[in-house]
Amino acid sequence: MDFDLTEEQRLLKESVERLLADRYAFEQRQAYQKSPEGWSRELWRAYAELGLLGLPFAEEEGGVGGGPVETMIVMEAFGRALALEPYLSTVVLCGGILRRTGQKELLPRIADGSLLLAFAHGEPRSRWRLDHVETQVENGRVTGEKAVVLHGDSAEKLVVSARDGKGRIGLYLVDAGATARRGYPTQDGQRAAEIRLDGTPVEAVLAEDGMPLIERVVDEAIAALAAEAVGAMTALQELTVDYLKTRKQFGVPIGTFQALQHRAVDMLVATEQARSMAMFATMMAGEEDAAERRKAIAAAKVQVGRSARFVGQQAIQLHGGIGMTAEYKGGHYFKRLTMIDQMFGPADHHLERLAEAGGLFD
Fold first, then answer.
1. How far apart are CA 344 and CA 103, in angstroms?
2. What is the CATH code for 212-356?
3. What digits encode the pLDDT tens for the residues 187-229?
4. Contact yes or no for 318/263 (Cβ under 8 A)
5. What are the residue ranges spanned by the domains of the chain?
6. CB atoms < 10 A from the CB of 359, how many?
7. How do residues 250-283 score in pLDDT, each as one tens digit?
8. Domain 117-209 sits in which CATH superfamily?
9. Which CATH class is domain 7-111?
10. pTM here?
């Protein structure tokens, strides 16, 4: 199997990395984080100009006709830069739902950066179960509570999951301004919101039986997060090696100590293991067989989560006290990797799912 990027994919990779290198230094990221929305509108417009916001959409939908590999390239670059913008929530999750439910008139607005969306699915008691939905829809109005909605405080429209009178979990488009929202920063510097819907009017019914679609877009989101984690792990491993080369003890760089060299190599091995599984998740994200796709995505989530924890812990220990400070980039990578592991269920949760399914190769 050929894992080389095409010429167009290499150009995409170079363009994204160049943009983020110029505009996402650590000090710049801290400034974006302190803005009212917690991210950069100016950079969001730059993403639109570069075609990143329309990447998964067909040309007739205002996009560029990319696929999972292109999404992987962008998300890995975002991981290296610790990007804060709502790409996962707007483009991957909600964009993935809208392009499969006939809402094609909204996709050009996503692609040009003029429409922000958030996927309001998780609830206070749902933990990581996708089928635990207590929010109700009746007579075209939605009532319930949604928790930890990624970038829900800046979204203009919400894709909401709710149960109808027949017990089906459907997907509904609502105006975010018609809900009660409480936004807050998460531990990794991103943004989320608690959302209360109290008879909020439905603008459009996206899917009356939406569980298969929810599972599919969440699998695609996990594949995208795996790529982001690989980007963050790669940057953190490189940052740690550079530190070992410059930090001196007993008059010599600590990187000359063989025990620390071995630990740096172990970090590299864990990162490459995660990279392999992230690529596997990317290849399987478009699999039509839902059972096979879920097993592959679960296996990738297990390896990426375990690698992220190992690389993060080793980096903090090898950096010593500086690794824990808010003024140093290393700790921020570890926070983001920890949050990625928790999103849509940590490694242990997906290991249970994989065991229940009979393993990856049953």
1. 25
2. 1.20.140.10
3. 999 999 999 999 999 999 999 999 999 999 999 999 999 999 9
4. yes
5. 7-111, 117-209, 212-356
6. 10
7. 888 888 889 999 999 999 999 999 999 999 999 9
8. Butyryl-CoA Dehydrogenase, subunit A, domain 2 (2.40.110.10)
9. mainly alpha
10. 0.95
